[in-house]
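Quick note —
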Amino acid sequence: MKSSSKSHDHDSIRLDELAAHLADELSNLLQLSQTVQQALSDCIFAEPPDAETLFRLQSLDRIGQGLADLSRLMQYLRADLPEEATVPIGQVLEHLHLRELADRFSRQDRGAGPDRRVICGDVVWL
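Predicted structure written out below.
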């Protein structure tokens, strides 16, 4: 097991709190997925998308449904996790590549999700 060199070395997070964090993050991702769906539905195409494209766009709805299910599952699991069960927060944070996400996990007050300034930005079409 790798040890963290950060200040979180000796801090722990209760598993029920971690499950709550995960449920909140899944809900935030669901909202982002719905925002993308709405943005795509507002797009005006030069010609209507073909059946294959429409089929692939439906994947966004499946992503949203999956995120909603996983969020509900995490809330359910949270209720059954013993309060005394903990994991080192440093080890949890080591698995998160997005700094903003790691920062939200390490805060006691999770807030309402991603900072709006971070999720707003220039769109680059590839």
